[in-house]
Amino acid sequence: MCVCVYSHNHKGSAPNNASSIFHNGFFQYNGSLPNGDRGRRKSRFALCKRPKANGVKPSTVHVACSPQAAKAISNKDQHSISYTLSRAQTVVVEYTHDSNTDMFQIGRSTESPIDFVVTDTVAGSQSNADTQSVQSTISRFACRILCQRTPPYTARIYAAGFDSSKNIFLGEKAAKWKTSDSQMDGLTTNGVLVMHPRNGFTQDSKPGVWREISVCGNVFTLRETRSAQQRGKMVETETQELVDGSLIDLCGATLLWRTAEGLSRTPTLKHLEALRQEINAARPQCPVGFNTLAFPSMRRKDTPDEKQPWVYLQCGHVHGYHNWGNHREEREGREGRHRECPMCRAKGPYVPLWLGCEAGFYVDAAPPTHAFNPCGHVCSEKTAAFWSQIPLPHGTHTFHAACPFCAQQLTGEQGYVRLIFQGPLD
């Protein structure tokens, strides 16, 4: 998943607590891409006020294949959206410069109009190679966000982005229609979905309702299927304005929008590191081997070491790695399915614990006391409870809760478990 923040400063630099924000592909990479954050491919991005406004707004409407319409499409200095109604009829809407807004575009394309390049999320994948064999469902020019350059710095999202020729084309098969005020609007193939949490992005947050955003920024209920030609019902009481904690789904990647104000209330990486050191300072021990356990530094979050804490997800008892309860099928190379906890005899998955390193996903600054099931990513109780309730789009037709740090679908009764540490015996 990706985190995004719009900075309200004037120098174009991200606020210190933003650490650059929007995630490449779903929350998936736990704070950084496997090969490092590079250029427009990052695990998170910061949207900052541009030196010069580049926003656009609708202007003239041309019907059919008039010379004016053809000129608008071919003019690379002119933004336009083309709605193909039939082979014989196309409506072209010209867009003109808007000095009051900054425009940021997101999509799979690596062409220059895309500010933030996103890739498909494959649950549990650790490299870009894991995603290359998967047919992408993310649009090359998925969506655009327009941010006001003056207070209150409102950010609005729209489906589809302008290509290298500054055009958006909605083909004959795309869902499109004429509005009540004789304007045009439409939906992209797999759509852009948005969900605003109730009570903001705080420890009291609750899931909102998923909606679809149109090319012109109108809000609709979801279509019967993701790519159906029949649009949902328009929701006139809601807008496309992004709020702290808004989730944006691009059908293959889910992004988390965080405001600069919201991030100022979340824990920093420095705070998470202090919590890690506090846990380690308590010297938790393995109740079987009696060896001291320690969470590795957040830079080393991929390969377990000898002091790595492990957990039985059925009961939450934390151990070091050992072979107790290692049934025959695990000894034969299928390790990690079910093990018997030596403390309570509960049988379930036995996995290493990893600290959740993306601070933007935390709803509070409480200690990391709970782990997601089945991946073992650790965070605060209220953060675990929040994400376990969020139905995230999966594929083109289903929803399920997932770990924000690795995108694995949550399992078990709650989707997470309280960790039970044993302190030192001395």
Q: Which features characterize this protein?
A:
elongated, four-stranded mixed β-sheet, mainly beta, 426 residues, Herpes Virus-1
Q: What's the Cα radius of gyration?
A: 24 Å
Number of domains: 2
Mean pLDDT: 84
- Proportion of beta-strand residues: 25-35%
Q: Main β-sheet: number of strands, strand sense, barrel status?
A: 7 strands, mixed
Structural class label: mainly beta
- Percent range of helical residues: under 10%
| Widest sheet: strand ordering | 2-1-17-16-13-14-15
Number of strands: 28
The tally of helices reads 6
Flag low-confidence runs: 9-29, 125-133, 329-336
The rounded distance between the terminal residues' Cα atoms is 43 Å
| Large-scale geometry | elongated
General description of the model:
The protein is mainly beta and 426 residues long. The strands form eight sheets. The chain has a seven-stranded mixed sheet with strand order 2-1-17-16-13-14-15, with no helix packed on it. The protein has a four-stranded mixed sheet with strand order 3-5-4-10, with helices on one face. Strand 18 and strand 19 (318-319) form a beta hairpin. The longest helix has 13 residues, at 269-281. The chain is 10% helix and 27% strand.
